[in-house]
Structure formats: structure tokens, C-alpha cells
From TrEMBL:
A single BP term in Gene Ontology: methylation
Top-level taxon: Bacteria
Pfam families referenced in this protein's UniProt entry, alphabetically: TP_methylase
The protein's name: SAM-dependent methyltransferase
Entry keyword set: Methyltransferase, Transferase
Organism of provenance: Hyphococcus flavus
InterPro entries: 4pyrrol_Mease (IPR000878), 4pyrrol_Methylase_sf (IPR035996), 4pyrrole_Mease_sub1 (IPR014777)
Limits of the Tetrapyrrole methylase domain: 9-208
GO MF terms held by the record: methyltransferase activity
Amino acid sequence: MAKNSEPSFAVVGLGMTYLAHVTQEALDQIKKADVVYYGTAESDSAKMIQKLNPNAKMLEYIPGKQRQDSYNSWVDAAIADLRKGLNVCMVSYGHPGVCCFAPHEIVRRARAEGFSAKMYPAISALDSLFADLGADPRHGMQCYRAPDFVDKCYALDSRASLILLQICHIGHSGVGENKQKLEGLELLSRRLSETYGGEHVVTVYEASLYSEVSPKIEPVPLKRLKEANVSGVSTLFVPGIGGHEN
């Protein structure tokens, strides 16, 4: 594969629905890179990436370490390849700029060192949620990563809808044990009930990973949030109080 005269970094996303959401722009970046790092363990997507570029490597978490240690190692590896004169592409699930530390950090560091670096847009959980739940951000929308929302106690406008990403990760740095998950959901429930009340119905949402499978949409009162079926890719949608006209 012929290299460009100047090494560059590109980060692309596969979207939420495997193989259906990937853009031609993303495919082109994967094909032309000298080395590709990808963050999906889903077999069809992994096979596609490896077929497009034989120099593709799966990003893996360091056993026994916090997630941030793994993120830092991915950043260091990509920057090291850029310094070698290689064109690097990183592929993420969903949108690479939504709740993804490593892509943002590599872009920042690459540009600081004088390399060309670009993030390409992709379909995120937010885009899928707007379509599947009929939520319209024109009425006002607040969006946070759930662990940050709980830790930093952001002020809320109860009239606007609220979207919380990664609700399974509250209280720990990775995908924790069931007890940690339940404790995190209980904490989130109490925090939100202060503003919306325990009877306020929210929705646990998961975008469809496959075209033939429906998205997960589970309404639940806030006071029963910890009883909901929550996974590592669950998002919480909290409608504003009062509703809106179409």
C-alpha cells in the first residue's frame, strides 16, 4: 500500500446498526490507512474491517486495569505510529466523538505535534434515539454521560428532556458487577427523583444492533429504575415535565 507523503490520523464510526450505518467515507478511510485500530468485537463488523485492511488490530482492554489505562495505551500506540510516518485510522462503534476519550485525545495530540487529524461523523445513539422515541431536540435537550452527571451534580431544567449515556457505568471505571450496577442505578434514581419525582416515567433505550432486530424501549417509573433490564449500552431518556405540542 502506497503511503501519503504526510502521515495523518482519521477516526471513523460504524454507526449503531452493524454494517447498515457505516458510511462510504468511513470505508474509504479504513481502506487507505497503513494501520487500523478498531473497537468493535462484533464478528461481522470485525471481519469487514479486516477484509478492507489486513493491517487492522482490535483494541483490547488491559486485564486488571481501569478503563482509562487502556484508553491511554491506545492513544500512545496511535501517536507512536504517526511518528513512524504511518497513516492511522481508528474505528469505533457508534459515533467516534460521543463518549469516546481516545479518539478526541489522539486528534488533540496529533494536531499539537503537527500531524493532520480528522474525525468523521457517524450515526450515534442520540440519532437513533431521536428516531425511535420520537424525541425532538427543538423542545430543549440536556445530554450527559451518566457517571459525570451523578458526580458533578449538574443543574437540571425540568422542562427540557434529558438524555443520560452509559448509565451502567455509574460508580466504577468499567463494566462492573451486578451489585455495583444496581447501586449506581439506585443513586441515579434518587438524583433524578429530586427533580422529576419518583412516579415520572423514563425510558431505558438501546439502539438496534441489527437491521432485523427492534430497538429496546423499556418505560419505567424512576422509583423502579434499578429493576430495569440495563446493559453496558443502555441510554436513559427522561422526558421533560409538561410535554410539548408538535
